[in-house]
Amino acid sequence: MELFANQVLAGIATGAIYACMALAVVMIYQAIDHLNFAQGEMAMFSTFMSWQMMQWGVPYWWAFILTVILSFAGGILIERLLFKPLAKAPVLTNVAGFIALFAIVNSVAGLIWDFTIKQYPTPFGSSPFLGSQLISTHQAGMIGVTLLLLAALYFFFQFTRIGLAMRAAASLPESARLVGINTSWMIALGWGMASAIGAIAGMLIAPVVFLEPNMMGGVLIYGFASAVLGGLSSPLGAVIGGFLVGIFENLAGTYIPGVGNELKLPIALALIITVLVVKPAGLFGRPIVKRV
Amino acid sequence: MSAAEEVVTEAPAVEAVPKRAMTLGYGTSLVVLAALILTPLFVKNFIIFQMTMLLIYGLAVLALNILTGGSGQFSLGQSAFYAIGAYTTAILMEHFNVNYALTLPVAGVICFAAGFLFGQPALRLSGVYLALATFALATAMPQLLKLGFFEHWTGGVQGLVVTKPDAPFGLPLSQDMWLYYFTLAITIGIYIASVNLLRSRSGRAFMAIRDNEIAASAMGVDVSLYKTLAFGVSAGITGVAGGLGAIAVQFVAPDGYTITLAISLFLGMVVGGVGWLPGSIVGSAFIIFVPNIAEGISKGLSGAVFGVLLFLVIFLVPHGARQVALIAQQLAAKLKKN
To answer: What CA–CA distance (Å, rounded) separates B142 from B254?
Structure first.
């Protein structure tokens, strides 16, 4: 039983990483209705920017804030330059665009900062949290920041005019335009926010998985899976989905014989598909009702 | 998050392509065919090998095109079916000494069954959810092939070496050239069969489902049957391509069939034009040659160059090669008038 409790705790700790990334995924999905395959790479690039600032002697929190602002601007810039012209192109062409962006960002980061693994500092320290060996203060801090982000997002979407406008633009673009919402800029804003959240996620994850251009590959897949599991329309669902995926992944690794590190991912994905077959809109998503 | 989004009529994710627009004209087809038959006579063996790969990937892209362009279902899991086909061929040839030509139908049938079965749970999913499910399949496949349980047959991480067949009946052809013509014959056969499939009753059912599932079922189309059938057919063709690929590369190993392959095939479909079957060859050329070109332009930044080239293509022709073909057709018509 103690093993079980410990594994659940460790699962929550890894789940925090996925939850962070899943939040960014849901954010962009709310704004543009697609999953952005380049999201992880954008987050990785932001993390490298903050690392570079710290190398130049900027204190952690200043680098943190500057990176979030730069990422926000960068996300908007990418949308304006690359994806606004594709707004009228077919959906699949847009997906190809994400893949192209992925290749570009990954390759450029590899050229600037090369592919060696780098240490990344943590602001929370890495001593055991409340006497438990399985969860460090950094991971506890990460869970805290994720929940804080979730609350901030909830507040933003529910209680601010611009949050309301973004929701309107995402769900019924034409009607939103008719009441005077600039839907095109709402999409850009969504990109900016997703990029900023991705940057925060990246900076929190980097001390755990270490900094290198391919650090986000696995994390993004789990982030997608968490977001889909929780329901793509619900930020809360995404965070819960992240924790669930983390816990399940750890339990599967411990209790199912023959499951090494390599089979963890397929098994986690198989679970998610099983959930989706039973609940196609995810655990917390609203089912989409279509009009013929 | 809001109540309103529940009643939005969603635009179909894949645009409707009229049946006729799915193929090339008669004359153009003959020219392309002649070029495909004659070119190998004048080039080096390595280029013949590349052309063989071009046809093989072309088949795999065509299969995805039937699934996505025909029935409107996404798949990021084509690499899994490609792997099953490749391993079927390799195991039959190396462990059971079956003739290479006979292994291909077996690969096709096994993959058809696999695709049909996978199509069952996939019925409940659409859009991104289906993409994720197929993605899971693609990531799981290399790991499954590495499992110790199958190692006796699959060769585990090391994979299997496949012998390249000689030309039969004492024909004076090199191995590469024979394999090329063999592949070409199969490709043409499958291409004609696919065109006919999409023109048939089943093809119309696919397209009805793609354009509006609810309307299609109201008209009496058995939606679940045709959706799984589309998955099966697509997987079957991919399996044949995989088998041919195993013979051409002379080697199968789990790491040759990762998610990267599935993504390449997806890109090939987009570049060739979704739902336009002849575009499959164009798309296949893109995914084979453009990474090499990118590498040639800059070694360190090859990924970035590839991304930029891909962006250029989708900026200039968002509908892929189909758009180019349409423009060319209009130009030709104008010239005729003058």
So the answer is: 5
